[in-house]
Amino acid sequence: MNTLILGLLIVVAPALLSGLAVLAARRFLHEKVREGHNDVLVPLFLTAGTIYAVMLGFLVVVVWEAYGDAKSNVAVEASTLTTMYRQTNGMDGEELKAMREHIRAYTEAVVGKEWEIQAKTGGAAPEARRQIAAIYREFAHMPLETGNSAINHEFLQQMSLVTAARNKRTLQAGEAVPWVLWFGLIGGATIVIAMSCILYMDTWWPHMLMSGVLALMIGMLLFITVILSKPFQGALALEPGPFEHSLSVYKAVDGGN
């Protein structure tokens, strides 16, 4: 869904509806309001609002941390690939050529195909998986003395880091906030806003304004949660920039830098 439309539905629409709900509540409850109405309702409203604020704030922080973790993991994977590419300088000619080809092919597959797949379905590209497997096969077919060399031992450790980071990235691309949490967030927002509408003020427009502002604030936090809940999708989706940078470093290494 278009981000602008999503923002209107989550942020603006509830604010407008809350204003209309205030007018409706005042019309139907005006003659039923008695002294002590607000004295009873305000403590209940404050309790419900506090409980909801804690839940919403906690989820926003969790989603933001997950988004930051996904971004950091992408950077780690890309930078480790760059380190591996430089480490191939210590390998023999045929081994150097084969490893560089696999690393470059893997990075190009991530940028060209896997990123698009993750943005759509949260899956992974078979081409990238094949390059990972090919590097491990290269090690499996090496003579024992070559495979146990210091440079190959370090290279294999870095390869393990890349594999772990890729698996983590693939899982993060498919993660989403459970429906039960959305049920709690939307249900809680509805309850809090509804309670704000049945408070009573002598003048209608400040009541309408305050209820609308409350709905607007809740909507903005929900909108942030929706946008950040899937790090590889949406308006703030992570970009393959770190891997593109790695490709530029590969060219520099090939040129002797």
Break the fold down into its secondary structure elements and pairings.
Blueprint: H1 3-29, H2 37-87, H3 93-120, H4 126-140, H5 144-147, H6 150-174, H7 179-197, H8 204-228, H9 241-254
Helix pairs in contact: 1-7, 1-8, 2-3, 2-6, 2-7, 2-8, 2-9, 3-4, 3-9, 7-8
Structure report:
- The structure is a single chain.
- By secondary structure, the chain is mostly helical.
- Helix content is 81%, strand content 0%.
- It is built from nine helices and no strands.
- It has helices at residues 3-29, 37-87, 93-120, 126-140, 144-147, 150-174, 179-197, 204-228, 241-254.
- The longest helix has 51 residues, at 37-87.
- The chain is rod-shaped and about 90 Å long.
- The two termini are 45 Å apart.
Relevant terms:
mainly alpha, 257 residues, rod-shaped, 9 helices
| Shape descriptor | rod-shaped
Arithmetic mean pLDDT: 89
Radius of gyration: 27 Å
Going by helix content, strand content and strand pairing, the class is mainly alpha
Distance between the termini: 45 Å
Oligomer: single chain
The main pleated sheet reads as: none
Percent of residues in β-strands: under 5%
User: How many helix segments?
Assistant: 9
Q: In terms of per-residue confidence, which ranges show pLDDT below 50 for 5 or more consecutive residues? A: none
Order of helices and strands: HHHHHHHHH
